[in-house]
Amino acid sequence: IFKFLGAISVDLGQDRIKPYLPTILTPLYRELNSNYAEQDPTLKNLSQEIIELLKKLVGLEAFSLAFSSVQKQANQKRAMRKKQRALQTVANPDIAARRKLKRHKNKAETRKRKIESLHPTYKAKRHRSHALKDLAMVE
């Protein structure tokens, strides 16, 4: 898709690409700023190359305006999600408590896995799954 975006932008030319610049930059910006574990470095390099190509194609000023608008929009979305999560904690405490329990359970499992990887002879006690008991709310 990134190669397609680059090819379309070169094909359209300097004047016709400007209205579509924020739309093209959005996935490129998302790929550059992502920090998930299984990230493909070739995608990051490709997005960087296409950004450089766009910079040369439309000029630094137009590119900067479009890029800053994409950045601003991404930051607004991030802040909105954070705010909604905080409001949900207040509005629905039972859902928040369930989420918190799940997070703590995952944290304990991760800790056990880490200990087992560091000390192969050590076997941590695993939580046995009791389907109905796991679904019940802890008071």
From TrEMBL:
Highest taxon of source: Eukaryota
Record Pfam families: UTP20_C
Residue intervals of the U3 small nucleolar RNA-associated protein 20 C-terminal domain: 1-116
Gene Ontology CC entries for this record: 90S preribosome; small-subunit processome
Protein name stated in the entry: UTP20 protein
Protein source organism: Zosterops hypoxanthus
Lineage start: Eukaryota, Metazoa, Chordata, Craniata, Vertebrata
Gene transcribed to yield this protein: Utp20
